Structure formats: C-alpha cells, structure tokens
Amino acid sequence: MEYMSTGSDDKEEIDLLIENLNMSDVIDMMENLYPRGEPEVYEHSLVKMCQDTNQNEERAESLLLSGQEVSLPSSVRYGTVEDLLIFANQVSNATKHYCGRQPQESGILLNTVIAPQNGRYQIDADVVLFPWKLTYRNIGSDFIPRGAFGKVYLAQDRRTKKRMACKLIPVDQFKPSDVEIQACFHHENIAELYGAVLWGETIHLFMEAGEGGSVMEKLESCGPMREFEIIWVTKHVLKGLDFLHSKKVIHHDIKPSNIVFMSTKAVLVDFGLSVKMTEEIYFPKDLRGTEIYMSPEVILCRGHSTKADIYSLGSTLIHMQTGTPPWVKRYPRSAYPSYLYIIHKQAPPLADIAQDCSPSMRDLIETSLERNPNLRPSATDLLKHDALNPPREEQPRCQSLDSALFERKKLTRKDLELPENITDSSSCTGSTEESEAMKRQRSLYIDLGALAGYFNIVRGPPTLEYG
C-alpha cells in the first residue's frame, strides 16, 4: 500500500495531471530541460515507440472468451475455469445491464471448500466475513492510503469451516484479469482462487487465505527483516515468478503488500495488473504497477518483458532489509509526490541497500536492479544465486521440522551440550540409554521451540488489504 502527502492544496490537481499525462511526452520534455550525455542502455527493440497497430494492444476481454454473449448465471454453482472466465467477461462487459438488477447472488465456484445451498451463497447465512485488523503503526492524518480498489476480508464457510480470503471489488471496477491468471495457472506460490460471486454491485473473489499477513504488515509491525527471513521469502517469490514467467505472464506489481505468508510458504497475490504476453516484448498503453518499485523501462512505456518483475523484486528486497522503500529516505514523499522522473534518471537505487548487508545478498540485489533489462537475470538464474543457497553452517537452526528431525538423528548423545540449568530427563534415571519414545519426545520439544522463534516472521493479525 502506498501513502502520499495531502498537505498541499494542489494535490488533486497534481494527481489529475499525472494520471492524464503521457509518460513518453513527459520524458521527452524533461530530456530537453535537463540534457545529459548518458549512454543508452536499452536495446533498440526495447525503446522503439509502440505503434497503434501493435499486436500486444490492451484487451478489455479475456484471451479465451472474447466476443461470447452468455447470460449471467441465475445462481451460485460449481463450474470449470472456462465457466468462470465467461462469468467474469459478462460481468465486466455488461455491468450496466446487470448491476443491481440480479434477483439473487450469482457466481461460479472452482473448489468444494465453498458449499452453496440450493444455488444460494449468502453472507452470514452461508459465509461469514470478518474485517482483518490493521497492525500498521500510526502514520498520521496527513497521509491517505493508495492502492488496489479491492478490500480484503477474512471469510469462513459455515458448512466446511474453511477459512478464506475474500476480496471485494466494485463491479464497475472489476476486470477479467482480476481472476484470469489465478484461474488459469496453478502453483504452490500463487494464491489459489476458489471462485467468484456477484452480490449486488460487488464482486467477491474467494481465494487461499494468508492468515500470516503480508510482508508489508511484517515490516510495519516488526521493522526490518533479518537476512535469513529475506532469503526464505525471496526463494518462494522467485519460484512463483519462475512459473509465471515460463507462461509468459508479467505480474507487474511485485511489492511487500502483494507477498503473503501462509503457514509454510509465501505466495503472490493481486493479479489485477498482470498480462500474458503474446510476443517477447510487451507494449503497454499506460503505467502498470506501484511507481516506487517500477523499473526504468516500465516508466518509459516503450516496451518491457518479464524482467520488469525482477527489478521490482530487487526494490522489494531493499524494503525488506531496511524497512523503508527505495528512494524514500533520500527523497521524502512530502517533497516528491512522484518518483517517476527520479527513477528514470537515477535508477538503480543502490545507495539504499542496507549498510550491514552481506556481500552475497548485496550482489543479489545489485544484479536484480541491473538497469539494462537485457543483462538482468531471470528468476531461474536468481534461484541458483549463492545468496539464496548459503552454506549449511551459516543457515539458522531448524529451518523446518523435517530438516530439524533429520539433523537430530545424526547427532549422538555426547554432541548435545545442554545448558547447566537444564536437567536431562533421561540422566535422572541413571540409565545410559534412552528409549526411542523419549528420544522422539526430546527431539520434538527442542525443534518446536526453535520453530516457534523462526515463525515469528508471520506473527500478528493479517492485514486489511493485500495492496
């Protein structure tokens, strides 16, 4: 979630101006005002202007189902991915027809964790929604939140007892892309979509719940993350990105609030800005993403690829290790309502990398923030980076229960050095041998204690919004 100062009387006019300006024109004007003899770092294919007849022109409809005329279902029912995409397209394209005129809720469900009754799925009667409590620090009354249109609630089905995330999107702001990527592509590091239901003038998207909250909430509640926590999160994010990029999908909004903790993994959420490319380079009509994490080529609007997500991940890594987004310390938000020109001229923000960053992690961040997208590594390459695969002796103890139990089996009794104030229960009996049951009990006790500290990275109630 981004915050902007409202102290200026001209804020609304500035926002309106920024929203409607063509970024290419802005860059050209600034180049004339502030000429610099910098060498060009982009290949010609990446900087050429998008033609009006470009095959990658933005689509208002789904890739699979454009042009079909199908009535909205009159009930909530189970269906296929194709049924859900048809439903999403019809809601998006016929909003004025159906908005507020449906006699009852309608929708398509993909998973039986949601249990409709006789074609109905009603709030309170069938599913209960709970507002997720905020744990952010007070940032003052001079700031207002800016981010996605949807609000996210914690939901629980009354019959299956399944806890889910429920994202509410006003129907006039709903796009098929809000469900298309999650419906079509399944991966352990992508939040699973369970279904979509239209109630009145609001679309409710039910998906896998990240009850551990987002990385943003972790940062706001607990401050900067430790390096081994960053390694753990980064591995999961890169696995998700590696899968998406293999399908030629650009997420377009990698940032802390869109990385959510599950009990044993981290997942990516919010695919409303995602695009499936049909060529090697994607030419957008507008800016996509959150500007503080945007890559220089995205800001130029002259074509980019999946490598834009890698740059955004590099910016996110800086945020995780310092607790502050890149650029903000050197250029306070109160004085700089927009960072677009700063990023265009000064990226990458290497000066914002934490001073105590390890050499290998610094190299990972610098590599991810490579200004030239052609030289920037892929998600597959980064997963092999030394920073994400430290030697075993440098890894924190008991990263998982399975690995902890495996290590415990390799230890002999004399290798365990217990503190003097801890009495070994087996030594009280005077026996030199432990039963297998006692070994398992002691091993489990030790490992769970370590795990309790390790999983402090997901402590605290979930956030109200994913971003």
Automatic annotation (TrEMBL):
Family annotation (CDD domains): STKc_MAP3K8
Annotated compartments: Cytoplasm
A GO CC term assigned to this protein in UniProt: cytosol
Name of the protein described by the UniProt record: Mitogen-activated protein kinase kinase kinase 8
Keyword terms of this UniProt record: ATP-binding, Cell cycle, Cytoplasm, Immunity, Kinase, Magnesium, Metal-binding, Nucleotide-binding, Phosphoprotein, Serine/threonine-protein kinase, Transferase
Stored SUPFAM superfamilies: Protein kinase-like (PK-like)
Domain Protein kinase, residue spans: 138-388
Main location, first listed in the record: cytoplasm
Homology family: Belongs to the protein kinase superfamily. STE Ser/Thr protein kinase family. MAP kinase kinase kinase subfamily.
